[in-house]
Amino acid sequence: MAADTTNVLALAHEILPVLTQRRSPRAYADQPVPADALNQVFAAASSASSCFGEQPWRFLVGTRAGSAEAYDKILGSLAEFNQAWAKAAPVLVVSVAKTTFSHDGNPNAWATHDVGQAVATLAIQGAALGLQIHQMAGFSADKVRAAFGVPADYTPVAAFTLGYPGDPGALPDALRERETAPRVRKPLAEFVFEGGWPQPEEERYDQAPV
């Protein structure tokens, strides 16, 4: 499958093309994700770095074609707004962090950071395969915990869709506008500080709208 080149990100400095192709669509094609592609993206996640090599990431996966019960559990944990569009995605996932170190049982304060690294790596591998993910904070960790029996020392972090991007025209007007709006990023000066923290009068928040 060719890489998704819709609404490619334009930046002031050249970066790897696959990084500019990664986006967060809400429109998905009615096309299942092959097992080998799923294995590739999760293998990519496993390549991420982590504190003490703990690899604290875990993933709860539901595919509409192969694990409908798990899919419905994850869909039911999403906020109503997210359910409305996420139900078109062929794969739903919840990332989970193991919050203690395996070697000594102490709290792992960097677990969610490392889970984020794993998901970012997964997203880039997906983009290289023509797949896209859309990460969501709008879900109920309590519902996930109850539905899947997640142990106490594991914390659901975020939910995300996974699939091949579809036609934005199938979305409601408001979501279609978000899907096709130009993608912008803050200039480096707003988040890269050399020599000291910027003073309030130097801070800029008008460069990149949320």
CATH architecture of the domain at 27-165: 3-Layer(aba) Sandwich
Q: Pairing-aware structural class of the strands and helices?
A: alpha+beta
> Could you give the count of β-strands?
4
Query: Strand order, biggest sheet?
Result: 1-2-4-3
Tally of helical segments: 7
| CATH superfamily (homologous) name of the domain at 27-165 | NADH Oxidase
Give the end-to-end Cα distance, rounded to a whole number of Å. Answer: 31 Å
Rg value: 18 Å
Describe what this molecule looks like in 3D.
The chain is of the alpha+beta class. The protein has a domain at about 25-165: NADH Oxidase (3-Layer(aba) Sandwich). The protein contains 7 helices and 4 strands, in the order H-H-E-H-H-E-H-E-H-E-H. The chain is globular, with a radius of gyration of 18 Å. The protein starts with 16 loop residues before the first helix and ends in a 30-residue tail after the last helix. The mean pLDDT is about 95.
What characteristics describe this protein?
about 210 residues, alpha+beta, globular, NADH Oxidase
Q: Strands, helices and their partners?
A:
Layout: H1 17-21, H2 35-46, E1 57-63, H3 68-77, H4 80-86, E2 91-98, H5 111-128, E3 132-136, H6 141-148, E4 154-163, H7 173-180
Antiparallel strand pairs: 1-2, 2-4, 3-4
Helix pairs in contact: 2-5, 3-6
Family: Belongs to the nitroreductase family.
InterPro entries: Nitroreductase (IPR029479), Nitroreductase-like (IPR000415)
Protein name: Nitroreductase domain-containing protein
